[in-house]
Amino acid sequence: MATVRRFEELEVWADARELCKKIRKLVNQTELLKDFALKNQILGSSGSVMDNIAEGFERDGRKEFLNFLYIAKGSLGETRSQIHRAYDSGYLNETTCNEILNDCLNLSGKLSHFIKYIKTTTHQGLKKL
Fold first, then answer.
1. Quick check: pTM over 0.85?
2. pLDDT at 122
3. Cα 32 to Cα 102: distance, rounded to the nearest angstrom
4. What phi and psi values does residue 121 have, to the nearest 5 degrees?
5. How far apart are CA 50 and CA 16, in angstroms?
6. Which of 82, 104, 102 is nearest to 12 (CA)?
7. CATH of 36-120, one of 1.20.1440.60, 3.40.190.10, 2.60.40.2470, 1.10.3470.10
8. DSSP per residue over the chain, as a string?
9. Among 49, 81, 82, 104, which is least packed by CB within 10 angstroms?
10. How do the domains of the chain map onto residue ranges?
11. Which sign, positive or negative, has the C-alpha torsion 54, 57, 59, 65?
12. Which parts of the chain have pLDDT scores under 70?
């Protein structure tokens, strides 16, 4: 694997960013826009996925990066749950719901594989923690 110098180079971060953009577009195009509590939660949790990947990377330590990747994965689970709530509330049709859920599940799998890779790598990061 080539050396990654910026979190923007990480495929999992780029995918999280795309998911976040897709969810924002969805919110702005549906009645979900008027459900302030759910809207704020889903925008926050989806943004948290990409933000935690970035923050963990910038900590420059392997253990901290892993911790933030787990937090990102948890936020992704929260986003999936909120997608179900949006569907149950009638804001999403079944096709859109399933598409977003599949995006979340694909990203979750990629995060799991990335976490496994980071756990097995010998590189400790700049902090060497």
1. yes
2. 72
3. 20
4. -75, 150
5. 5
6. 104
7. 1.20.1440.60
8. -PPP-SGGG-HHHHHHHHHHHHHHHHHHHSGGGG-HHHHHHHHHHHHHHHHHHHHHHHTT-HHHHHHHHHHHHHHHHHHHHHHHHHHHTTSS-HHHHHHHHHHHHHHHHHHHHHHHHHHH-S--TTTT-
9. 81
10. 36-120
11. positive
12. 1-2, 123-129
- Residue 34, both tokens: 């008027």
Six-digit token string for 3:
């050396």
DSSP letter, residue 128? T
> Could you give the angle at the alpha carbon of 1 between the alpha carbons of 11 and 20, nearest 5°?
10
Question: Which of 120, 128, 36, 41 is closest to 83 using CA atoms?
Answer: 41
> CB of 122 within 8 A of CB of 23?
no
Tokens 């787990």 found at: 70
Residue 117 Cα distances to 96, 111, 114, angstroms:
32, 10, 5
